[in-house]
Write the structure tokens for this entry.
Amino acid sequence: MASVRSAAQIDVVCGMNLMGVEKTPSQDYQGQKYYFCGDFCLDRFVKNPDKYFGLPLIKFIGLKKSFQLGKVETKVLRGINLNIWAGDFVAIVGASGSGKSTCLNMIGLLDRPTSGSYELEGENVANLNDIKRANLRAHTFGFVFQQYNLIPWFTALENVTLPLTFANQKIDEAGIKKSFEDIGLGERMHHRPLEMSGGEQQRVALLRSLANDPKIILGDEPTGNLDSVTGDKILQMLIKLNKEQGKTLIVVTHDADIAEKADQIVVLKDGLIIPDHHSQKKIYTD
């Protein structure tokens, strides 16, 4: 049923603040009414309501980010409220300039918010010092970028083990060799990036993102520079990690086909998450 409210309500699934959203679906559960930004979040709640009374893995509350260039202030994120649940595959979509990559950078502690709260497993990490942020990045996140970002004078093996070196973790050479063999790069371990194809470089980047056994894998258009066949192989590798190993997978994408495979779709417009984001995805993907 649709409901009209004047008071603020929070979608317990996606975390969106529904103040000002006049009509939203609702559901009675254990004597209380809950409101949702759209039918997709409502459906997720109905299938497993108890999940959404736990602690989100990631929680943004009123998160804002502005950039100052001289006297000009550019507001990129304008007050985001967002829940991301452990083990989910989340696609972040939106038009160019909507704030997608900035949002991902915030999640991965690559940038600091101007204001607002970012809770990671219940701890507000928005204002941690640089050392603590670097430590969290090294042990919690794996990053896969569109541009691969491999160090050109390092071999594939050296690129993959670099996160372990930064984190002062032991390097399991036999295990890493097997991981190269598992994705068809056993003979390419000692090649440098310029000696490899784009698909091979992205597979190396994927192995690097997994070297520290992260809870969360972040991808910024990870298949954007690849042909459709190679891109699909990379995507299937990521989804397999999500489904079989329980890695939380968060991907920024313009690809509607990728978004369609996600458990949750977040649509950004002008630095805000829009209501009923799942049904709006086709408007903001190619």
